[in-house]
Amino acid sequence: MAFLALFTKSFFLSAMLFVATFIYYLGFYVCKKHQNIQLSSAIVLYSLYLLMFFLVFTGGVANTGPLWIYIVAPVSLSIHGFRRGLIDIAVFTTLIILIMFIPSNIAYHAIYPIEFKLRLIYSFLTVSFLTTLYEYTRDHALKKTLELKHKYQKLANFDPLTNLSNRRVAYDILKQEQSHLSRNKEKLSILICDVDEFKRVNDQYGHNAGDAVLIELAKLFNEQIREQDCVARWGGEEFLFILPQTSAKNAAIIAEKIRSKVENHVINYQEHNIQITISMGIAQFEMDAGIDEVINHADKCLYKAKDLGRNRIQASNEN
Ligand SMILES: Nc1nc2c(ncn2[C@@H]2O[C@H](COP(=O)(O)OP(=O)(O)OP(=O)(O)O)[C@@H](O)[C@H]2O)c(=O)[nH]1
């Protein structure tokens, strides 16, 4: 359009269009180079408004300048979203009306027939309304999709009963921690914890009471671990603790603290006071040991702890 205006000797219009092109490029540059999307969109949007005011004021080529104002609604709404975009459009419409209806003896501007001015405003408002409706629906659909994404992500990563990480996430964390281990030569230990005679809790108080016990245990475990540790629901009444920068010896101290905390904790469910105990198997990662191998070690220790009478911890070097 700038080149066309140049060929038709509309030098001022051509210069304005070249300036606008440069400003849009500047907006693009700010976005690309400085990742400042807010600033670049403000540059694009408000320079577009200025160009529109200029085209309506001067008439552009043969008084067709006002026909470009329809692009304002979609650009405003896509840049500033539903609410702010609507405010921008309202302010823009008011200024356009002022420019077109201002008496030409006050400011000399392009003269349009009254029918044209009114129809331009009506059609602009109709396009703005339809664009707003579209933007609202799109925004609503996007929010719903993000909500669903968040919900399914949560379902995929967390156990819905206890809100702890599930087995898959625990395995991923173990893989991650194991890779740190080979790089930093740090120690890493795990605890596998199983509720003792949990079937009895279900049989005696009901399945819902069993669920309440698991929820309370998860809370208690979370309170006992350090920031760098992780506790996950490994299976039915089994939990896995991942303890980075921790030797088996220190893991045993942590395990004993947790075991004793559970032993002395009374879980109130409806009118029942439920007391439970846990057994734990401890294993430390050796440099070239695989994850399954270490889990196997911890599992064997857990069985041993159960065999020795439950409510105890057992480390692999005590086998
Ligand atoms: N309420 C409830 N029970 C569960 C859940 N997952 C597993 N269980 C129950 O946990 C019980 C585990 O029983 P067992 O494997 O026999 O073990 P235990 O009774 O804990 O005995 P030991 O492990 O040998 O001390 C079973 O009755 C399962 O139904 C759950 O999410 N909620």
UniProtKB/TrEMBL annotation:
EC number(s) from the headed UniProt entry: 2.7.7.65
CDD domains membership: GGDEF
Gene3D superfamilies with a match to the protein in the record: 3.30.70.270
Catalysis performed (reactions): 2 GTP = 3',3'-c-di-GMP + 2 diphosphate
GO MF term set: diguanylate cyclase activity
Residue intervals passing through the bilayer: 12-31, 43-61, 67-82, 89-108
Boundaries of every GGDEF domain copy: 186-318
Keyword terms of this UniProt record: Membrane, Nucleotidyltransferase, Transferase, Transmembrane, Transmembrane helix
Superkingdom of this protein's organism: Bacteria
Keyword Repressor: no
Record protein name field: diguanylate cyclase
Organism for this UniProt entry: Thalassotalea castellviae
